[in-house]
Amino acid sequence: MKRRVVVTGLGAVTPIGNTVEEFWKSIKEGKVGIGEITKFDTTDYKVKIAAEVKGFVAKERMEFKAAKRMEPFSQYAVAAAKEAYEDSGLDISKEDPYRAGVIIGSGIGSLQEVEKDYEKILTKGPSKVNPLMVPLMIANMAAGNVSIQLGFKGKCTNVVTACASGTHCIGDALRAIQYGDADVMLAGGAESCICPCGVAGFTSLTALSTNPDPMTASRPFDKDRDGFVLGEGAGVVMLEELEHAKARGAKIYAELVGYGATGDAYHITSPAEDGSGAAKAMSLAMEEGGIEPSQVDYINAHGTSTHHNDLFETRAIKLALGDAAKDVVVNSTKSMIGHLLGAAGGVEFVTCVKSIEDGYIHQTMGTKEADEGCDLNYAIGAPVEKELNYVLTNSLGFGGHNATLLLKKYEG
Fold it and tell me: Does pTM surpass 0.85?
C-alpha cells in the first residue's frame, strides 16, 4: 500500500519576491520580474534582459560563513528550504534525522564559478584556481548544503533533467515517502546562471527572446512569441507522510496524489511534435491519482514562450485530456518570472499549492492573442477565480524529459 503524501511547507526565492508571501502577493498584483541584466555588461550581447532575483542578501537568510562557501544557486536553495522547513513547523531535533531527506535539483549548477576560474587559468595559471571551485560548482550542492544546514540525514540526492529537474525532484521525493524510505522530504529546484556563458549559450541556441520589452518578452502561447526569458531562483516544498503530519498537528496545504515521468526519445531540445511524451506523463499522473480528465480544474503549463514548446504542449494537453481540454484553465508562471530552468518546477509547484489555497489562477501576463494551434483557455487578459480540486503542473526538459505532478485539495 502506498502511503499518502501531503504538502506542509513552502519556500521560494523568485524574481518577484524572495519569500512565498512576497512572491504570491506579486503574482496577485500581476507583477512581471523581467528587466535589463545587471549582473554583467551586455554591450556585445543580442539579449539584454532576464528575470533576476532582486535584493537577496544571503547573510540575512543563513550563517555568513556558510553563505560564503555557496554559489547563488545553493544560497537560493538553502533560503527556500529554510523557509519551507520553518513554515512546516517541523522540529528536526524531535525526529529521526535518517527519516528526513532532501531532493533538490539544479539543471546546471554554477556556470559563474567555471567562468571565474577558467579566467584565472588563462591569466594567472592553474595553481591560482579556487580550492573550492568544484564544491561551489557542482549541481548536487544545493541538496548537500540544505542537508548540512538543516540536519536532514536521510536520502539526499538531486535529479538533473534540465528544465524538468525541480518537478522530477518533487516526484522522486513523493515516491520516497510513499514507499517508506522517508517520512519527510524537502524537495524542489534551484538555479542561477544569468551570466555570460548562460546568456550566450542559450542565445546561440536561438532559445531566448530577443524582444527588448520586459512586459512582452515572455508571452507564452502568443502568436508573436519568440523565445524564453532566462530567470533564476528556487522553489522548495516540504512533503510529509499524512499520518506523520497529522500526528504533529501540521498545517496541510494540499495532497500530492500523482506523478508521471516519461522520455520523448525524439530530439535534444524539441518536445515530440505530437505531444505524446508529455501527454503520457499527464495521463500517468491522473491514473495514479484515480481521476478522469474532466476532473482537472487547472494546468500550470511548462509554457516557455518558445514556438515549439507552446504548440507541442498544447497538443499534449489535448491528447491527454481529450474533450475535457477545452474546459480546463491553463496558464504559465514563466510569463511573470521567466524560465528558472531547474528551479522552474519547484516555483511552479508552489504556485499551484497557493492557487488551490486561494482559488486563484493568475493571468498569463504578456500574452495578448493566442497563436494558431494554441487554442485552449490560457487565462489571457485576466486572472480566473474558481474552486480548485485537482491541479496538474508540467515540466519539459531538453533531452526529452517530461514530468507531471497532480495536486489535490486536501480533504482529510
Answer: yes
CA angle, 83 then 88 then 92, to 5°? 90
Query: What is the spatial distance between Cα 238 and Cα 150, in angstroms, rounded to a whole number?
Result: 13
d(CA 398, CA 181) in angstroms, rounded, equals: 29
Kindly tell me the burial class for residue 324, based on how many C-beta atoms sit within 10 Å of its own C-beta (0-12, 13-18, 19 or more): middle
Predicted pLDDT at 412: 80
Tell me the C-alpha distance between 260 and 13, whole Å.
26
Burial class (CB in 10 A: 0-12, 13-18, 19+), 188: buried
Percent of the chain with pLDDT over 90: 100
Contact 162, 107 (CB under 8 A): yes
Residue positions annotated with a catalytic role:
163, 302, 339
Q: Which residues pair with 49 in a beta bridge?
A: 36
3-class SS of residue 283: helix
Residue range 155-173: mean pLDDT, rounded: 98
Q: What is the pLDDT of residues 257-293, one digit of tens each?
A: 999 999 999 999 999 999 999 999 999 999 999 999 9
What is the distance between the alpha carbons of residues 260 and 276, in angstroms, rounded to a whole number? 13
Distance CA 362, CA 381 (A): 10
Report the candidate in 231, 83, 108 with the shortest Cα–Cα distance to residue 161.
Answer: 108
